[in-house]
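mind reviewing both lines:
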Amino acid sequence: MPDETRERPTQADRSLRTRTALLESAARGLSRYGYGNLVLAQVAKEAGYTRGALYHQFKDKQDLTQAVTEWIQETWDREVGRFVEQEPDPVAALLTLARGHAVFCRRDIARVAIALRLEFSGQDHPVGRSIEDGYEALVTHCTGLIEAGRTAETIPPGPPARAVALAFVGALEGTVIALAGQVEHDELLTARTVAGVLGLDPLDVSLP
């Protein structure tokens, strides 16, 4: 006999499952082909749904792409950001961010923000503005941690904190791109790279 105690998925559950599958498919497509070459029919097909199901969830490609960037940010906050916030020490928080981001970037979806930032560079487009807003939020957060580390004298003085934060994020992104597929080394080398930007001894950095 069937298990009658098992609850049937609700309409909201099914809708969420459809939306998540479409977001994951779109994220893969954006990371591979970019916004300009993204084909919505292909996104729906690879997710296992019809184009009508996609348009039931998202009104157009721009709406879908912005939903993807929001979903990726929420995923990053859950898998990386919350652990950064739990670190009371600014240096530990910055290194946790670097290590966590390296692990996060092993997934296809992590490439979307970098790909879109390059594609929309210098353009006034809603998707580009959304990506830049996320980038600026990360730089601002790192700036605050660097300033706190300098106040605590755990990060040495040097160039303005914002300039160091920009270099930190640039080194973070560049390293994870260069080490794509190097799972044995990406986490440690990313942390050591950003430690050097902060003025710390990279050889003092190890994995937890």
